[in-house]
Amino acid sequence: xxxxxxxxFCPACGSDRFVKxxxxxxxxxxxxxxxxxxxxxxxxxxIVNEKGEMLxxxxxxxxxxxxxxxxxxxxxxxxxxSEEAMAREIKEETGLDIGVEQLEYLxxxxxxxxxxxxxVNTLDAFFLVKVSSEAKxxxxxxxxxxxxxxxxxxRPEEFGLDSIRNGVIKWLSKTLNQN
Length: 179
Fold this sequence. Notes:
Layout lengths: L2 H4 L11 E5 L2 E4 L5 E3 L3 E9 L5 E6 L8 E2 L1 E4 L7 H13 L8 E13 L2 E13 L12 E7 L12 H17 L1
Parallel strand pairs: 4-9
Antiparallel strand pairs: 1-2, 2-3, 4-7, 5-6, 5-10, 8-9
């Protein structure tokens, strides 16, 4: 279900005259309030070690449970920056303590994410993180397991989320062409 269909009443006045305005907003014909359904901020890490191996993980939860993934998640709506969100997600999902100064912004990818029966639009910011192959990594939170893979062994089609798959393809293209 598209998220616009789920919201039937104006959040400002409660009117049921809350109608589709365009592809990204709804407008209340009663009080004039317009709500824009902007994408949620999300972050993704491409974690590599000094051997050039990439950390991949297996999703423990839906959507795409059991498929390959990268460490990441949503930025909190409490003033958290993308860098802070990335460091927090890495800590929550792997136990690694990464400082924001260790993050290198790479690129962004649009995505849709099925959550609670709704398709949520996100904008995923990808970061490169370099760590030691000796770093102690343990799967936590919504990660079932994680391991190191050589870039040439990574199969993008095994990644279950579109933006992650597309981001992996983009990063692998650049990485494998440099070697």
